[in-house]
Each structure stands twice: as structure tokens, then as C-alpha cells.
Amino acid sequence: MTVRTKQETFQESMKNRFMDFGYETQRVLRSVGHTSFVQNLVKLLLRLLWSLLHLAVNVWYFVLDIAHMLQSFLISNGLLRNYKVLNLSRLRYLAIVVDSEEAQHTSWVVELLNWLSAIGVKHVCLYDMKGVLKESKEIILKKLGVAMPWEVADERNLFLERKHMVLEFVSFSDGKEGVAKAASFLCSKYLKGASRGEDQEPVFTEPEMTSALRAVGCGGPEPDLLLIYGPGRCHLGFPAWRLRYTEIVHMGSLKSMNYGAMIRSIRKFTMVHQNYGS
Predict the structure, then answer these.
(1) Whose CA is closest to 178, among 221, 218, 223?
(2) Angle 183-188-194 (CA atoms, 0-180°, nearest 5)?
């Protein structure tokens, strides 16, 4: 009787232990399942929030583009008085960067230059990477009629010229290759001084580099405003040393250029106050 009671007691205790283990396992599994559900719910809510934010930004830019298109249309038709007369006193030199593929359409470039000439812009730098505009220089000058190349204009009176539009044609070769030519010019100048017995260290200052760039034909004025026509939102290799204080604006494709958009960008530049530091 005693032995049987002990066996029953042992079996009952083992049974209770297994039951407790089963209950504990179910509790843990339920806890894990609940945690996983909460995590999935949080991820879903975050994705939904991100999608809504992305949609809101897209809607905002869509409305902004529509507003700009409407404004450009009104400007092109002369319906906005503030854009009829522009104060170009701050826009002394304008640079236009064109994608090389679009630069092959010289008629578009000439039309753009005619717009600029009509509003009073007289000093323009044309740039494309492959030098397509350089090769078309004679054609562009002939079609404009009242334009002259930058090399012919007197540099001392460059910004006093009002009768003709002064055009500078620049390509990627005027960038890195221009710096290399200027450095070679300065080194040769230093070596000539050393051969005459002038013992001085080769310290090249910014004014000396600017003079060297002009000496090798790659040192034009610094543009006040740079308009980029092309798919990329970058200056496409325009000489960086000429962009220290330049305002850069992306205008979209040249084939979809718009008179009102150009006027809006130029007027916005003339209305902005620039701090050059001390």
C-alpha cells in the first residue's frame, strides 16, 4: 500500500510538471506571436506613413510645376507687369551650359540668344562639354548678326560694350587642360627666372594663376548667373575656378526651353541679395 501510494504520488507530480511545462510553453509561444504581430503592425504603419509622405511630396511638386508653367505662360504673354522691365545691373555676365547632344541644334541656341539680346543681356558665355558650340561659332555669329566673339572685344571695355552681344565659347578642354597649360606657363616662367640667377621659391598666388589662365586663353570673366539646359542637374564640367560666386539654375531640356521660365530665373537672380563675406 505504501509503495503504491508513492508510485501514484510520483506519477502525479510528473504529470503536474509536464502540465506546467505545457502551460509555460503555450504562454511563451503566445507572447512571441503577440510580439511578432505588433512588430508587423508597426512596420506596416511606417510603410503607410512613408507612402503618404512620398505622395504628399509628389503632389506638392506637381502643383509647383503647374504654378510655374502658368506663371511662365503669363510672363511670355506679357500679362505680368513686374516681369516686363528687368534691372540687369547685377547681371554683367551670363553663362549658358548646354548638353552636347542638344547643342547640335544651333537654331535653338540662336533663338535663346535672341531672347537674351531682346531683354538687354549683352555678355554671354556658351559652354558644352564636347565643343559643339565652338565648332558652330561662325554659324551662330552669322545668324545673330549683331554679335561679336569675346576674343575680338576689348577686355578693358568689355562691360561697356552695348551695341553688340559679346559671346564667349567654352568647352571641357578649357577646364582641366586650361589649368595644365596655365601651370606649365607658370613653371616655365619660374625656370626662366632661375636660369637668370633669380633665387626665389615657386609660390603661385591666385592672381598669378588668373594671369596665367588669361595668357593661355582660358581666363574669361566669372559669370554672375549660370543657366543649365540639359537632363543633368550639374554644370557639366564648366571651369570651376570661374564659379566662385555664381548662381546656378537648372532650366530643363533645351528643346523645351521657355521664354517665361528664362525671364523668371533672371528676375529672381536680380532680386536676391548676395553676401560675399569679408
Answers:
(1) 218
(2) 125
- Contact 145/165 with Cβ under 8 angstroms? no
Q: What is the mean pLDDT of residues 222-236?
A: 90
pLDDT digits (tens, 9 = 90+) for 82-91: 888 888 888 9
Contact (Cβ atoms closer than 8 angstroms) between residue 124 and residue 94? yes
What is the Cα–Cα distance from 278 to 264, expressed in whole angstroms? 30
Average pLDDT score over residue span 141-158: 76
Burial of 109 (0-12, 13-18, 19+ CB in 10 A): buried
Report whether pLDDT(5) > 70. no
Of the candidates 261, 224, 258, 227, the residue with the CA atom closest to the CA atom of residue 244 = 224
CB distance 141 to 149 below 8 Å: yes
The angle, 0 to 180 degrees and rounded to 10, between the axes of the packed helices 206-215 and 176-195 is: 100
**How far is Cα 62 from Cα 56, in angstroms, rounded to an integer?**
10
Report the sign of the C-alpha dihedral through residues 261, 266, 269, 271, in that order.
negative
Taking CA atoms, 196 is separated from 78, 150, 181, 204, 240, in Å, by 66, 36, 23, 19, 35
96 with 133: CB under 8 angstroms? no
H or E element that contains 95: strand 94-98
Residue-wise pLDDT tens digits, 176-217: 777 777 777 777 776 766 666 555 666 666 677 777 777 766
Question: Rounded distance, CA 150 to CA 242, Å?
Answer: 16
148: left (phi over 0), alpha (psi -120 to 50) or beta: beta
**pTM exceeds 0.85, yes or no:** no
Q: What mean pLDDT, rounded, does the chain reach?
A: 80
